[in-house]
């Protein structure tokens, strides 16, 4: 099965299994370039202003970039470098890690869900469970040799940032700073190291089609040299152009549910290009499977009835993986 990996060969033509129908193509010439995605400087000493900026971004875009976020630059650069080194491994080495089973805690795979999809996506990815680290790191790739140490350090830093952001995101809703910890618990952490090789026909396929994230919060480190992330805003796709040393934050479905629809988990996608490969590292903070989810009680009232019913994350995640990635917003299945 590992021959399905697209990072093991150079492709001069796009295989038919990646070609989207005419109505389902990225229409790259219609994308709004250099769009005004909110940017928040976390070094601003005026915390109230930062909270207000984040709240506005969560309501309007569901996406924002953060500067001066506290992740050491050397940690970010090392993570990106070792990710590139991993995807340069020999096909034989990568074949040892390949799996198309979404239940596996560590797997190298391709597209999104090759077991059930009819059209594939131009992406290979390494999926890692990251918390608690001591439990999962022994299963991570042993090659390249620095991989485990470098990615472990990055995971720890990203987790700390995630909980700092949670505090500001939740205060913007008028809830207590520790509300997330009380309701979502310890939280799991996953990572997807995404590799999008050069594509012979980028106008015919996607790296990942339009989707929302099923988790609570996503922190994305993008390739600063190669753009590819796009966000849907008011019916138009807008490019998210990487800023030096910035990280992209996007809200997952669980924060939209918790906010009773005030905050947005918006459609986004990854497109590819014919000139350069692209790498991104996405870190996901996720509720534990048994946690009860739904709108915060304080945000429900006579004038704002509950938009979503209560459910567990296990129930939600199973629904998400049972569908195609670009079907209707999974939260629609949980509306009251």
Key terms for this structure?
336 residues; alpha+beta; Jelly Rolls; four-stranded antiparallel β-sheet; 8 helices; 14 strands; 20% strand
What does this protein structure show overall?
Helices cover 25% and strands 20% of the residues. The protein is built from eight helices and 14 strands. It has helices at residues 47-60, 73-87, 91-95, 133-136, 147-171, 179-184, 253-258, 313-321, and strands spanning 39-41, 63-67, 106-110, 124-129, 188-196, 208-211, 217-222, 229-233, 236-239, 247-251, 268-270, 278-286, 292-293, 311-312. The protein has an eight-stranded mixed β-sheet with strand order 1-2-10-7-12-5-4-3. Strands 6-11-8-9 form a four-stranded antiparallel β-sheet, with no helix packed on it. Strands 13-14 form a two-stranded antiparallel sheet. The radius of gyration is 19 Å and the shape is globular.
CATH architecture: Sandwich
Low-confidence stretches: none
Query: Largest sheet, if any?
Result: 8 strands, mixed
Oligomer: single chain
Give a count of the beta strands, DSSP E runs of length 2 or more. Answer: 14
GO molecular function: dioxygenase activity; metal ion binding
Family: Belongs to the iron/ascorbate-dependent oxidoreductase family.
GO biological process, one term: defense response to oomycetes
Pfam families: 2OG-FeII_Oxy (PF03171), DIOX_N (PF14226)
